[in-house]
Amino acid sequence: MWDKDTRISTFLQLFKPILNGQFFKQIKDLGVDKYVKKLFTTHLIIFMIYAQLEQLKSLRAISNSLNNQDSSQAIALESISFSQISRRLNNLPTEVFQTLFKHLTFKVLKEAGVNALNESLQRIHIIDSSTISLCLTDYRWADFRTTKAGVKLHLRLRFFEKGVLPEEAVITPAKPADKTQMDALVVDEEGALNVFDRAYVDYRKFDSYCENGTRFVTRLKGIAIKEVVEELPIDTDGPLKKHQIVLLGNPYTNKMKHKLRLIETVDTEGKPVIIITNDFDLTAEEIGDIYKNRWQTEIFFKWLKQHLKVKHFHGKSEQAVKNQLFIALITYCLLKMLELKTGYKGPLLTIKRLLKTCLYEPFNCFVQKLYKKPTRPSKGRRRPPDHEAIYQETLRQVIAGETDHLNDLDYDPVIL
């Protein structure tokens, strides 16, 4: 299926984690290609990842990409209609993409190696979600508000050498509360520490976590009812404002049975941040620093929405939307694997942009261009010349008789 030129290309290096016997076997076991004659699952996945990289806006544009001879030869497909792509995207079980996503996240962590991970952060799992707005007329199944629809991408992310890596994903309509997905996302393994925000506060869950040893760190809502059991000492010159042992909840309705630590610190703007945890081993300063690292999830969601296609969908069914979101996560994982393979330390966006022009070139050419230094370093944004000041200075020189330099061909008043 893949010719010799492709075997040494950047294309193959990018898609190598997908084009392997293990994934082909999974596809065969699922039976999704049993009656397919032309557009196989691997074709569809490569098409959609290519659309992510190129930011193609329609299925017709994806279909037309085969007019490029390099694309046609690499994928081993001469042509396909946009309607065929649409049908497969809408009908292919989301389990296929979900399985591939989990496989790739495992491979990224494995290729990074234990030494490449930050030892102090490797057991921290961040749980968060982001809502993607949709047109209510086209996506009735995802009704969110009176005039708006939406889907919510729930993620569990793991601290990585350069930011975070998604390791578990759940996609739902936007209406259900975040805390309804805690069972699917919270890690109960020994040594794992779950970090999430106020949207996941659930006192009954917290009690169960205390009973089974599931560690968590979260932020407390300002209106929360709490009983202070013990005041713990703090450094008055440090960032901490409070350190207490508390019981949360209303004693008549939902009061917790287990005690928690309450730590009050301040954010970068000086506003109070109240954090609670059932971890009694880490210091209060460490707990505060761990929660503050949640900002990296915001960067991840922002990157995903800006540089991958997750705001415009090629299909209107729930299955098509979920498939496209998983393809975006798969694309991110493939970019991270390419980043690890090249050892590149710069922005991930640079790799994505360079792939658009070097996808069918030899991989060594791609690496050389990735590491190529700019021949003319930028001097940054320069202020426009002050023409009035130049005129006044030249006039002063003429009146004073200081005019010899004005006849010099190298003289330029603008750059003085």
From TrEMBL:
Keywords in alphabetical order: DNA recombination, DNA-binding, Transposition
Pfam families: DDE_Tnp_1 (PF01609), DUF4372 (PF14294)
Limits of the Transposase IS4-like domain: 122-334
Single Gene Ontology BP annotation: DNA transposition
GO molecular function, one term: transposase activity
Family membership: Belongs to the transposase 11 family.
Protein name per UniProt: IS4 family transposase
